[in-house]
Amino acid sequence: MNKTAKNRIRLPLPQKIFNVFNILFLLMIVVITLYPFWHALMVSISSPSRYMKHNGAMLTPLDIDFASYSAVFTNPNMGYGFFNSFVNVAVGVIVGLLLTIMAAYALTRKNFYFKRPLMFLMVLTMFISGGLIPMYLTVDSLNLINTRWSVILPMLINTYNVVVTRVFFSSIPDSLEESARLDGANDLVILFKIFVPISMPIIAVVTLFIAVDRWNAWFYPMIFLNKRSLFPVSLILREILIANDTSAMTANVSVGDKEPIAETIKYATMIVSILPVVAIYPFLQKYFIQGMMLGAVKE
Amino acid sequence: MVGREKTVKNRGITSWLFRQGNMIKKDYKRYKFVYFMIIPVVAFYILFHYVPLGGAIIAFKNFSPKLGIWGSEWAGLKHFTDFFSSFYFERTLVNTLVISFMDLLFGFPAPIILALMLNEVRSRHFKKAVQTISYLPHFISVVVICGLLRDFFSINGLVNSIIQAFGGTPSQFLNEPGAFKPIFVGSNVWQSFGWGSIIYLASLTSIDPQLYEAATIDGAGRWKQTLNITVPGILPTMITLLILRIGSVMSVGFEKIILLYNPLTYEAAEVISTYVYKKGLIDMNYSFSTAVGLFNSIINCALLIIANFVSRKVNGTSIW
Asked: Which end of chain A is less crowded, N or C, counting CB atoms within 10 A of the terminal residue's CB?
């Protein structure tokens, strides 16, 4: 009698032991990766006064209390912050994506006269740059300091995204384009009505990358913006998390009730600021893995 | 009929230009919209990449905002020599190199090891779950990460409470120069090893499974298989990424350093790029800061070229 299909391979003992250790090790990695966020979450929903007396690990919250979150949402700074971050992301994604796909499209046009110079122009910037001060002076000379644009424009196009998109575009069969041209389509139509719908995976990835970059950006906002009303969430976060810490340099004494409230609020702000990204990225996982692979296959 | 061939009688540059002009005209007819498409793109790169690049010339001048770039007088290599002979040169250079080296030492193998381990996992669901979780730190803003670090390593924080539980004495780690580099590099590894494993996992899938089958038939154990099939299989990827990393040795994540350091840890934490920031935007010593930044970029470039060259000679793998 023949035993059908499912051949259960009998693993030798050393192999089994290895597998167990492997899984344990990976579980440890999961814990190390997740614990800080769990800690943050637990503190943020804890009662501020009880947290003051607490030391060490937080596995469960101390008296669930959403006071910190209401403090975050009623903080007028956060209102501005979210608005500004949102605008930065929206404009950065819409305009940046548009420019990125146009650049990638141009780079895939056979016999386009300026194809090579364009490619060279863009890739060179990945290796050399003028530096911080020249960039600052350039933005200054454009009179963009302290405007919203100083944060949006300098990072509008990321050459890496263009490269990845270009690789994807070049894998689109020529026949598609040819039949479209026969029907009288011009480049605009081909790009936006044919290439883009087909390239939704890569567009999803590039959108994610741009959005996350813009949402997390803090350095250019810090050096270019003085008006608090223009601060994005990341800058507000920086004030709360970094500036607040100078107290730790002087003494360990907590100053009355103000300090513990600050701690839980800090964490609540952190959680609120990372929530959008955390909620979205798992769904795009399949796409950005593909994107990373494409990026590695630079032609 | 004998076709008339166009012979180029005049080989001068005007003739060449004329021909190119004609080609461009033809090209424009064919690719009109493409030309429009790249106008904003080119404008962006020129405005925000090449103009600053040109602006780096102030490193060779005594730039004063009132006089502007053209009005400021030349200073030759003065700023460079000032930097090289300053107290900070050695300190920043050493810190930059040591931090980069530590980053490379711990941060480079970590994603590879993770990829190798994930590769051994049988259950697809477990593998996917671990992967998804491992990407999380990569998406978190460095500001949040530093906030977490500041709290965990504070005098009442998690790390100190663990130390106290083991009978040790707590200390304010972020004020200690000796603790800075390990905390910095450790958190770098924590943040990036999951994301970095993506590329390796991808190249692992491109290794021919028949190689493994043949090896099993030949009696090679798991370990031998890993050494002789898996590692050579991902070696090109490893080398390419290593070259890229060497090319950014000098620009050691300075955003995070700025968020993490303070005057007490300057001696261990100040790197060339943070020095550029401090001198340039805080002390407003524009020319000097640009010179230091230029020095940084040039070294980076040189390292990249050298690494690429060495890799090409030794291995045949290179970026160009």
From this structure: N
CA distances from A201 to A196, A206, B75, B144 (A): 10, 9, 52, 29
Assigned domain for B148 exists: yes
Contacts of B140 in chain A (CB under 8 A): 216, 274, 277
A164 shares its domain with A184 = yes
Structural domain harbouring A138? 76-241
- Same structural domain for residues B32 and B174? no
A83 lies in the same domain as A113: yes
Residue B2 reports pLDDT greater than 60: no
Q: Nearest CB to B289: which of A39, A133, A277? A: A133
Whether residues A296 and B32 touch (CB distance < 8 A) is answered with no
Burial B17-51 (b: 16+ CB within 10 A, else e): eeeeeeeeeebeeebebbbebbebbbebbebbbbb
Interface touch B53/A128, C-beta < 8 Å: yes
Contact (CB<8Å) B237/A296: yes
Residue B124 lies in a domain: yes
* pLDDT tens digits, A203-242: 998 999 999 999 999 999 999 999 989 999 999 889 888 7
Domain with B41 in it = 13-71
For chain A, what is the radius of gyration of the CA atoms? Answer: 25
Which of B124, B128, B139, B144 best tests the A interface by mutation, with the highest count of A CBs <10 A?
B144
Mind telling me how many Å the CA of A28 is from chain B's nearest CA? 10
Instruction: Report whether A91 contacts A152 (CB < 8 A).
Output: yes
Residue A53 and residue A128 in one domain: no
B232 and B292 both lie in a single domain = yes
Of B134, B135, B273, the CB nearest to A29: B134
Model ipTM? 0.86
Using one digit for the tens of pLDDT, what is the confidence trace for B166-177?
A: 888 888 999 999
Q: Verify whether the Cβ–Cβ distance A278 to B136 is below 8 Å.
A: yes
pLDDT for residue A251 is more than 60: no
In whole angstroms, what is the distance from residue B265 CA to residue B250 CA? 19
**Number of domain units in chain B:** 2
Q: Say whether both B196 and B60 belong to one domain.
A: no
Residues B106 and B64 in one domain: no
Chain A: give the shortest CA distance to residue B7, in Å. Answer: 23
Regarding whether B174 and B63 lie in a shared domain, the answer is no
Structure confidence at residue B8 as a pLDDT band (50, 70, 90): low
- Between CA B123 and CA B142 the distance in angstroms is 33
CB spacing of B158 vs A32 below 8 angstroms = no
